[in-house]
Write a structure and sequence with these properties.
about 100 residues; mainly alpha; about 0% strand; single chain
Length: about 100
Amino acid sequence: MKAVADAFAAIADGVAAGQPDAALRQRFQQALSACRQAAASAPAELQPLLANVQQALATWDEVWPRLGGQEPFRNAVIREARTWAQRFADNAAVTRRTPR
């Protein structure tokens, strides 16, 4: 889950820094790939969340060309990406402490 957390943090940082659209869309794709990889071995209780964020990433990538220049949308992406980065980081910390 750390890779997923890192991918969402990278999205938030990239949007906040005003990175070019192509770089941001690449970050969306990298995060989507990290989610897919995590889903392959994630516990059942995390599957709905991973599915949800994959849908969000696909949507962000699809609408970014139209909405990426709008500050409210950019702020929403930053906020959501930071929220998910923290949630996945918290889950990664719990997973590391939980014996299997």
